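Page 37, top half.
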Amino acid sequence: MLHIRKSLIITLAILLMIPLLLPQSVSAKPSASKSAGAKANAKIIYLTFDDGPTAHTGQLLDILDQYHAKATFFMLGPQMQQFQKATKRIVADGHGLGLHGATHVPGKFYKSAYSGLKEMQQANAALNKVAGVKTSLVRTPYGSKPYLKSSYRNVLLAQGGFHLWDWNVDSEDWKYKKDHQKVYNSVMKQIHNVQKRGTAPVVLMHDQEATLKVLPKLLKTLKAEGYQFEILTKKVQPVNFWNDKR
């Protein structure tokens, strides 16, 4: 009887020691899963700037560098030719590249199904001449609605091979150039609303002096809230007012 009791005690002691003898890598699985989940739930945001480059692009890029933020620039052909140094720096700094046409005049850009395509091709040629690169991302003047009709889109996207981008957060920084707090409040409210819907915010801003006044505060807040600044590429599904995924 005593022998049986000793055997039971020894067996119990061995069972209690088994977890301590297992490799530590087994207990690391939960933390690995947690890490993967955190990456999947990352808060991505896309900052975009229209109408440049300008005399203020250098300062804009300095601010983005300060906060380790990347953005996408939808640029005009003549502006790239005029501000070649800024254009080259946008490329060298690894920002996203987009085209905004040549004239920025609705009556000219949307004159026909092929006028917009021609302007985007001219802008791409300017980008290639100045910086030695091209892009397939486009944003039409004043957004794609209501001017860019279905037949116009087919020419621009199907024949031209471009990808159409609009936005889901409008800063209206062109409208409230003096009221920086209004711009900040509006942008943050829109970003939070878009994020709640499970969509990545695509923020429309402009390459202008007034935007330099509000940008640092926006970047500081967004970084504090855990947003990651990424650039638009042809691999990202387009966000546009027509829900055209081409």
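Page 37, bottom half:
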Amino acid sequence: MVPRTTLPTLTGLLVFQPLKRRYCAECRRGPLPLLALEDGAPRCLDCADLGHLVFLPSGDTALTRRSREESTLSAVVVRFNRRKSRYERQGVLVEEAALARAEQRCLADAEARRRRRVRDARRRAAQDVLFAQAFAAEILRLFPGCPAARARAIALHASERGSGRVGRSAAGRALTEGAVTSAVVASVRHLDTPYDRLLMSGVPRHEARRRITAAVATVLRGWSEAGIGSTG
């Protein structure tokens, strides 16, 4: 009736998806999409007292597990894979009410996960705001002449989560002078010098950087020296 090979080691009842046309040995109905074996003879699900169960395909592990937990009666559905010479699990048969309860449990979990993701996102956003503020404050400490709006823009850009920029590095998170200065230099390079135009015109990156070194230094010197002697 079924291929002569080792059946899967599964607990509980087994139901088969036949590869050939099979008919119920009791009521003669068929061909059967699913069948149970009793004494080696095929039975339709109704004759095997499984007709009230509904089929849940494999794929959602949590839903399958909970459906079986909720169902008083259940069966594992398998089909023979000729190429691999083995039975493979296709899903389960469970009580319809049990499936509905399992779906509600999974939906409740999904909603809980969604709420947790929202809370985590809000917490990370608040952390990012505080860090960007600290980064901007450190820029202004090192470069008091840097406009406050520019310092905030540099900090936000450098510390954007997932960007891989210097503000997300270990040194950046520690607000080291080197990391903060690197962020400022990058901003000046792109916004206050012809660096980007040089790249677009085909100038190699290292040569383009060499050409704008003096311009970058001038801006940084102006921002560093501003405010010196303004108090006292």
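Margin note: The radius of gyration is 34 Å.
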